[in-house]
Amino acid sequence: MMRALFSAASGTLAQQFNIDVIANNVANVNTSGFKRVRAEFQDLMSQTFKAAGATLSSGTIDPTNIQVGLGTKVSATQRVFLPGAVIQSGNTYDIAIMGDGFFQVQLPSGENAYTRDGTFKVDANGLMVTSDGYPMTPNITVPNDAVQVSISTDGTVSVQQAGQATMSQVGSIQLARFSNPAGLESAGRNLFKETPASGTPVQGQPGQGPLAATTIQQGALEGSNVQIVEELVNLITAQRAFEANSKVIRASDNALAQINQITG
């Protein structure tokens, strides 16, 4: 009975964590560039009462064992980097990544962070920055007399300045690609940081080299890849699993109470 109590308790804790993950996914259903997270689980060690392969008194080999598991635990939270729906916004500095890769921005500490959120703006100095004012790297400066800004699918940024008839290039958007994006550390504000698990970033221009299959689209944003119906189904499943584990705890408690009454 004590094994059942502890196993069921581990199950309720695991499902509570699962519900927390699902709740965060649902909360970010409208967050640009957000990637849903999936909780993964492992069983705990098993208690062995009889090992398979043991020699029986008859001289034969026991083909089976007797084991009982001792519960479950959360093994990982896997961020799923499937693409989100592309939403046309029409804003000049909204950019959607079509394919692999991340925008690179510079934090106040000087280190680089990475994001799929393409809601860029232009600050007072003409720098393209995030909603928090972090500049894109390499820096791209738009002249204050620009009357038209064009961002091509390969990341080339061109502007038409007042009094000029032609477009002139002012910079090029460079993306970063990771061998294991699931290993990136979420830093909040739609930003990720490099970790030893993610590998080092490979930088390049969209449509070239390691990013040959990637393009970018001006005037559009990548939405969250959270599917609200799927998350609600996962939530119902997690709730029922939590309830089932709670019932096991109550059943074990009732059995222990009866044993106490008999032996008392």
Describe this structure in words.
This protein is α+β, with helices and mostly antiparallel strands and 264 residues long. It has two domains: 2-81 and 226-263, no CATH class; 86-222, no CATH class. The protein is 23% helix and 31% strand. It is built from two helices and 19 strands. The strands form eight sheets. It has a four-stranded antiparallel β-sheet with strand order 8-7-14-17, with no helix packed on it. A three-stranded antiparallel β-sheet has the order 11-12-13, with no helix packed on it. α1 runs antiparallel to α2. The mean pLDDT is 94.
Number of helices: 2
Low-confidence stretches: none
User: How many domains make up the coordinates?
Assistant: 2
Main beta sheet, described? 4 strands, antiparallel
**Structural class label:** alpha+beta
Percent of residues in helices comes to 10-25%
Strand order of the largest sheet: 8-7-14-17
User: What general outline do the C-alpha atoms trace?
Assistant: elongated
- Tell how many strands the DSSP assignment holds: 19
Order of helices and strands: HEEEEEEEEEEEEEEEEEEEH
Primary descriptors:
264 residues, alpha+beta, 3-stranded antiparallel beta sheet, 19 strands, elongated
Per-chain topology:
Elements lengths: L1 H26 L9 E7 L2 E5 L15 E4 L2 E8 L6 E3 L6 E4 L3 E5 L5 E4 L5 E2 L5 E2 L16 E6 L4 E6 L6 E5 L2 E3 L7 E4 L2 E3 L8 E3 L10 E4 L1 E3 L5 H36 L1
Antiparallel strand pairs: 1-4, 2-3, 5-19, 6-18, 7-8, 7-14, 9-10, 11-12, 12-13, 14-17, 15-16
Helix pairs in contact: 1-2
